[in-house]
Design goal:
Elements (H helix, E strand, L loop, with lengths): L8 H16 L2 H10 L11 E4 L5 H14 L7 E5 L7 H4 L6 H6 L13 H13 L2 H5 L2 E5 L4 E4 L2 E3 L5 H19 L7 E5 L1 H15 L4 E5 L2 H7 L4 H12 L2
Parallel strand pairs: 2-3, 2-6, 6-7
Antiparallel strand pairs: 1-4, 4-5
Helix pairs in contact: 2-3, 6-10, 6-11
Length: 246
């Protein structure tokens, strides 16, 4: 794991230079590098496998189109951090909380993926529409994940916190990549944790150790809303907008 505090004044100077260089580069360049250099642990416990769409050159090319459309600048942005990608959204497109249907219809990105949607993506893009649209939203926010890659067990999604052995193995990977993401021009005053209490508690525990954000605000998981509280969807959208701020 990278050191959190520098070992020497020279190291401290280099960290400042690196931070300056990251913040001078546009988000699209930083994010392309970030997702192209992911090196997760090879072995996972209990028949769990990585969901790693960034290994596919076609996915990365489409992801690049998305990034240069919405992140072709170095303006500060706030983070919304989900749990980890799922197999019907970011596990296909490489774009967090974005299934093929939303990537085409809302973002205007052409692709060759099978046209399919996903409940969490439907909620997120309804929220983005209520906020003012994709250009306005993505100019102010980046949606990432606590763990940048997802997990599959017996053909189904699994969250990083669902298996104690899994958390232990992937935590150094999680910490390293969150710290690299935070080298970008991120507004650290408040991070929005998407995914309910477990994701919020885990991210908060890391934040207590490393002091990344001044505050973390929990938001309910879009899939839970769409599956169990669909009639109250507009109320939950307003809850999101209240914390995001228009």
């Amino acid at each position: 794991m990278d050191e959190i505090w520098p070992a020497s004044p020279g190291h401290f100077t280099w960290q400042l230079i690196k931070l300056f260089l990251y913040q001078m580069k546009i988000w699209a360049e930083n994010l392309l590098f970030f997702y192209s250099q992911l090196k997760p642990p090879k072995q996972l416990p209990n028949d769990i496998e990585w969901l790693f769409p960034q290994q596919d050159a076609v996915v990365m090319k489409i992801f690049e189109s998305f990034l240069y459309k919405y992140y072709n600048d170095n303006k500060p942005r706030r983070l919304l951090l989900g749990i980890n990608p799922g197999r019907f959204g970011a596990g296909v497109t490489g774009v967090n909380f974005t299934a093929p249907k939303q990537l085409k219809e809302f973002c205007g990105i052409d692709h060759y993926f099978k046209k399919q949607t996903e409940l969490s993506a439907e909620f997120i893009y309804d929220m983005i529409a209520a906020y003012g649209g994709t250009e306005k939203f993505y100019s102010r926010f980046f949606i990432g994940s606590v763990c940048p890659l997802g997990f599959i067990k017996q053909g189904k999604n699994i969250n990083y916190y669902d298996d104690k052995e899994l958390v232990k193995i992937v935590e150094p990977f999680i910490v390293k990549n969150l710290e690299q993401l935070l080298d970008f021009n991120v507004d650290r005053k408040n991070c929005l944790a998407i995914g309910g209490e477990k994701n919020f508690k885990y991210l908060s525990s890391l934040n207590q150790r490393f002091g990344w954000f001044e505050e973390i605000t929990p938001l309910p998981h879009p899939r839970f809303i769409m599956q169990y509280r669909r009639k109250q969807k507009q109320q939950f959208i307003q809850q999101y907008l209240q914390f995001i701020g228009k």
